[in-house]
Amino acid sequence: MSVSVILACGGSSSRLGFDKQMYMIKGIPIFIRAIKNLDCIKEVDEIIIAAPKNSIDEYEKILEKYEIKKPVKVIPGGENRTESVCKAYNYCNKSSRQIAVSDGARPFTNPEFIRACIKDTNIFGASVLGVNVKDTIKIADDGMILDTPDRRKLFAVQTPQIFNREYFVRGVQFAVDHNLEFTDDASMVEAVGIKVHITPSDYKNIKITTPEDILIANVFAEENDV
Questions:
Q1: What is the pLDDT at residue 85?
Q2: Checking CA distances to 26, which of 34, 70, 124, 195 falls within 20 to 30 Å?
Q3: Domains, the chain, ordered by start
């Protein structure tokens, strides 16, 4: 099984005020931690980083400081996540059987869960990491609660999200043809009628988004780096 991984690093980081992917957690940039969790997986053939256009050189300089075994390309991302992922696909190895998309701001993805997601994709054609939500979720409008969905059926979806190449291409083509933007990559293939499986993950696989996440990440790093 050969997998090309697209690492999405083009977020605006508006809630943090700085490039979160490059932020140091215990002396290591967040995106490097994300790469190292992928670098140890034999099925992964390559990693394509979709980065902000004005940060390409900086990403490449940081990469030179770390021993990454897999081939890594840094390419200019688009105006949004969907555009970045679609552009990055053009740089993927033509022989890869699966395309994975992961967040550069997820530094603690357990490689065992990534391997499980690859295996599940081989069975189901598309699979994403996810966990059951802990809180009760409310659907509201204008500050008033409209409905309370069954929590047992609700999942917080994470990355990586992995797809058989054929399914991913269909999703990309649909997004490009209709100039659509999706909040995650599973939604892109769901839009063309493909059902996506959920591979169980854990609650450590956080995406760094807010200042509180930085505090949590430092605690996780203390445990992981021992």
A1: 97
A2: 70
A3: 3-224 (3.90.550.10)
